[in-house]
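Model it.
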Amino acid sequence: MTLHFIRQGDTLQSIAEQINLENPLYIKEFHNQHCAREDYIVENLMAGRKLFLPDYLTIQKYNSRNDAPFKSPERNPKINFHPENLNIQYKVSITESSFVDHKKTENSFSYQFSLKWIKNELNHHIFHLSKNNFSIQNQTKIGDMSIACFQSINPIEIQTDPKGEIISINLLKKTIENLPEIKANLLDRFPDQYAKIYIEEFEYAVLNQELFQKKMKQDWLIKTYFTPIRNDFKNGKSHFQIILENELLDINQTVEISENNDEIILSQDSAKPDFKGKYILLKADGLIKSLEINHSYIDFGVVYYSDFKIDKLG
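Modeled.
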């Protein structure tokens, strides 16, 4: 047994982590068994008061009970992925803002996307993804061209592993065959010389498989929807990595207890305090019902914020 004097900010959880005690409730139990009656802990810890802590062998005895909250099945779900026969639509909402010299610039846009499961091939899932119904706050010509170019290659083929993590992104064979006609239609729609340069760069990017894969994997929708959120949980946590704004982030994932027994709520954060994420999955098939990510970063002294949401329609 050791004696600890409670400091401002101490909690049962923080002290338990310091002494490697899995269930922090045993701190209160142990202390109350060994202290005078006037020193009982009823609810919260009080700074300046003394606290009796268990020794190593007692801690091991407590841990052997395996009753820590983070070890419960609810906190360590096995998330399956069963997208067979999926044909679904989502709405995507994005708000991007920046601060320069205390002045805020903001732009928001939204679109819908459809995701259709095609088949399972060699234990890989094949999907078709299409984007449509774009709505942009600050409409620009280059934005219109970007939308038109992407819609001209709908749908794209996405291949994932059994847990829904992206493996490859490809154009359909018929899209490649029709690319000369697609390009001609785009040039008719955007006839000036700068548009011609943009459309030719687009053509080069989609015909270069390596470049096409790289650009598609940078798309916020693709890299958040098909990220490895279904990794195995251990002691109430799951981990994966994601690249946002050219920065590799280590994401920690925990489960929030939901009142809806049909859902699994995943709460995400990173060692860097500029990332927060929340996913709601359907427990039966592991499909995403909604997700929200808030991320910020600094580039050349400018602070950028991104709020990204996906919600299932219907």
